[in-house]
Amino acid sequence: MTAPKALTIDGLETVYDALASAIDQAGKDKTELFLVKLALLNANALGDAELFQQQLQAALLDL
């Protein structure tokens, strides 16, 4: 399987801004539900459960 294409710094900034805006739109009471739905949709789009697990572990580092 080919590794997914990485985003540029500009692409990451665009994604960050869109995510921050979507979290604001979801509101404080729905943020957790929104993030779970987003993670599941992205895991499905990624199509690789092992890679998703690796990304989960990476995201947990240095919280």
From TrEMBL:
This is DUF2783 domain-containing protein. It comes from Malikia granosa.
